[in-house]
Amino acid sequence: MDVNDMGRDLEKVLVSAKEIDARLSELAKEIDEYYDGEPIVLVGVLRGSVMAMADLARKLHTPLVMDWMATSSYGSGTKSSGVVRILKDLNEDISGRRILIVEDIVDSGLTLSWLVENLQSRGPKEIKIMTMLRKPEAIRKMKVDVDWVAFDVGEEFVIGYGLDYAEEYRGLPFIGTLASHVYGGEE
Ligand code: IMP
C-alpha cells in the first residue's frame, strides 16, 4: 500500500518511510548500547505495533525473542475508551527477564500504564518502553515514562505504519493524517 492507493483520503504525510527508517536505526543503536548484549523479550502490542516491531527487530543486534499481546482500547472511533481488556496474552513467561514494550502510539497513556502494571505483576527483571509516536497528552499526563520515542506528533489522529482508522490504512509505509471527509466531515 502506498500514497497512490490513498486517493483523496490522505490529508498529508507527517513522517515519510525514509524518516521512519533513519530514526529507527538511531533508536536501535541506542537500544543495543543500553542492553549491551543481554537478551530481551520484545513485547509488541497488536495490532498497531506490528510494523515498528518488525523493523526494529531487524535493526537490533541484541538477542531477542518476539512476543505479542492484544488489548482492546479503541473501537472504530478516534478516542480512547479507557477500558482495557486482554484479547491475546503473551506466550512467554517473562519472570526474571528484561522486557522492551514496543508501542505504536501513546496518547492518553491509559493503555500503556495498564499494560506496564499488568506485566510488572509477572515479575520481570525490568520493563522498558519504546514507542513510535507520542501525542502531547502523553507528555502532559506523564502516566508512564517512555524510554525511547521515535517521533512526537500533535493532537491530530494519525494513520499508517501499523496505525488504523476503522481497521484501514495499517499497510501504509508512512505516517499521515486523513482528510476530514473520511471521518464524515466537510472539506
Ligand atoms: P491511549 O490509551 O489513549 O494512550 O491510546 C493508545 C492506543 O490508541 C494506541 O495503541 C492506538 O491503538 C490508539 N490510538 C491513539 N491515537 C491514535 C491515532 O492517532 N491513530 C490511530 N490509533 C491511535
Structural commentary:
With 187 residues, the chain is of the alpha/beta class. The chain has one domain: Rossmann fold. The protein has four helices and nine strands, in the order βαβαβββαβαβββ. The strands form two sheets. It has a six-stranded mixed beta sheet, sandwiched between helices. The radius of gyration is 16 Å and the shape is globular. The structure holds inosinic acid (IMP).
CATH class (first level) name = Alpha Beta
Q: Averaging pLDDT over every residue, what do you get? A: 91
Number of helices: 4
How many whole angstroms does the radius of gyration measure? 16 Å
What count of structural domains?
1
Secondary structure class reads alpha/beta
Describe the strand arrangement of the main beta sheet, using strand numbers.
Answer: 4-3-2-5-6-7
Strand content: 25-35%
Query: Oligomer, anyone?
Result: single chain
Give a list of the ligands: inosinic acid
What name is given to the CATH topology?
A: Rossmann fold
Order of helices and strands: EHEHEEEHEHEEE
Task: Tell me the distance between the termini.
Answer: 24 Å
Question: Largest beta sheet, briefly?
Answer: 6 strands, mixed
Fraction of helical residues? 10-25%
Estimate the global geometry from the Cα principal axes: globular
